[in-house]
Amino acid sequence: MALLILNISMAMVVLGIFQACHGAVYKVGDSAGWTIIGNVDYKLWSAIKTFKVGDVIKFEYNPQFHNVMRVTHAMYKTCNASLPIESYTTGNDTITITTRGHHFFLCGVPGHCQSGQKVDINVPRVSAANIAPTPSALVSPSTDVKPPSPSSNTSASIAAIKSHDLVLLALQAAVLFVLFGFSDILA
Ligand SMILES: [Cu+2]
């Protein structure tokens, strides 16, 4: 039994390391991409995702018609593209999120941001693991932070698996299978 628990612990450590260095890839707008056609709701698109440091944000668009500019919050609010922090123009731009907090992007083509071609990628500064004593005033009303699950790491990690992580899931199954297989042989 102790061996079994040890094996499960080892598996969790291995998987944790693997997940930590393999961020998820999010294509902005999903199949619609980065566009003004179809009134894509980029606010909703980002609101229902839980971004983490290490995740990759992918902008796909026709570079003849659009671009990507990372801007400040003030510029984001007013659709001001005059002094971007960073500009991307290839039409297939991948940006790795390396810091917590908000990352504001808009299309710098006149009128496009006003038409809704802007997105706020927010990596919560407070992780679910240590929010317990935080005063509610510090948590923005728009931040949907779930309380920590009372169950074990195992179920928490399973909950974290997203549908697009099928490859990762397969790898996890393989690791667990190998470790359980070894425990059978030893027992
Ligand atoms: Cu545009």
From TrEMBL:
Signal peptide (UniProt feature, chain positions): 1-23
Source organism superkingdom: Eukaryota
Segments forming domain Phytocyanin: 24-125
Cited Pfam families: Cu_bind_like
InterPro entries: Cupredoxin (IPR008972), Phytocyanin-like (IPR039391), Phytocyanin_dom (IPR003245)
UniProt GO molecular function: electron transfer activity; metal ion binding
Residue spans crossing the bilayer: 166-186
GO cellular component: plasma membrane
Protein name, per record: Phytocyanin domain-containing protein
